[in-house]
What we know:
The chain is mostly helical. It is built from 22 helices and no strands. The chain is globular and about 60 Å long.
Amino acid sequence: xxxxxxxxxxxxxxxxxxAMHEDAPEFAREVWNTRLGFVLAAVGSAVGxxxxxxxxxxxxxxxxAAFVVLYILMTFVIGIxxxxxxxTIGRRARQSSVGALRAAGGRPWVPLGYLFVxxxxxxxxxxxxxxxxxxxxxxVALFTGFPEDTGAYFSSIASGIPAMGFHxxxxxxxxxxxxxxxxxxxxxxxxxxxxxxxxxVVGLAVWAATLQGSGEGYAFYLTPRLExxxxxxxxxxxxGQAFFSLSLGMGAMLTFASYLSKKENLPREATVIAFTDxxxxxxxxxxxxxxxxxxxxQGAVGxxxxxxxFISLPGAFVSMGPVGRVVGALxxxxxxxxxxxxxxxxxxxxxxxxxxxxxxxRKPAAVGAGTIIALIGLWPxxxxxxxxxxxxxxxxxFLPLGSLFLAxxxxxxxxxxxxxxxxxxxxxxxxxxxxxxxILRVVAPILLVFVLYTSLPIVADAFxxxxxx
Length: 469
Ligand code: TRP
């Protein structure tokens, strides 16, 4: 068991010692070594393909700035509350999603915990295929540069054997990090990689501002037209994007919070994480839109969703010559970091459940679960329609459903829901926390039912694309 805890082995840090005294657990569960380590890992989970790839293309699909406004609203008004609900359940029980839901709501909630595990597996199966494309693009940008016809290039690598190879590679990296444990694997990887991502994204945004013709890109991205704020589809899409980007609805944040000491102030951490996640998505937009508009590629982005950034953006990089080489490599390296740190959190949901519920030790759990997910992922790697289908089902059904249950559990069923979130918070924010409860009780459920209802046609479309050939 020593490889599982990292506490019995080696010198315990001051914080770990405290954590052990505080709760005197029967067996020592892993904990984060530092507060910053936890924040970076959670931000690592949140920041990923959702921010740098999905956010720009969804924004352009829904007409630009109005979508951005709605996305901000959803992140701060509903996203933070649901994030805080996951934190509450996870740290309260200090168990994986299965055990934590059991502790919060009793036996009837156990199946939801397993649904979370299944959702994590399905998301990771296709997420890792996209991350595989990213890995390949980072290497190509770095070593050979993109070919002229990026559309044809993307089609040639997006599915089949090439996609499978890079998907398996991504899974191998993910498994290796998760095997290292909470502190020595996940925390350390996030600590090293996330600052690089921040620097690169900010640097690219500054560079993009120097492009001639970037102004139109900013105008599209930042000038909202009011009438578009009231479209049901746009509202539902903005909510879906906010939840996906914050990694909500399947216990990833819950699991990470289960390794958190009772000293940490949950509302503060939730706010910091949501702001950073939003900040990276917003800054990615400040890179993508000026580049796309400066090169007159705006039509291409809205047209093909899945391929947008894998076709138009590299196309833009090609036409910039040597500068494009450097910038392209940096962009895809940042995207790779985002993807890997998110993949870690998806795998950890499964691994934590295997450790806590089935008494596996960490290494076999990571290898076993990772291998099964890698095998499932061969399907979306072979068939882009399967990828679209898995994406649609998880994002439009499983995640909103998971968030809905979490909101109801914490808002209505949990005894003394304020106890966990008021630890170490100041009295002054108490009214805000009462507001938080009412958002979970009323606003979030209504919105989530609406999201589920509105996005059913999306799932139906994806299903048709999958079977109708
Ligand atoms: N939030 C990540 C992104 O934006 C993806 C992700 C990681 C995720 N873990 C998750 C999404 C859990 C939903 C649930 O790329």
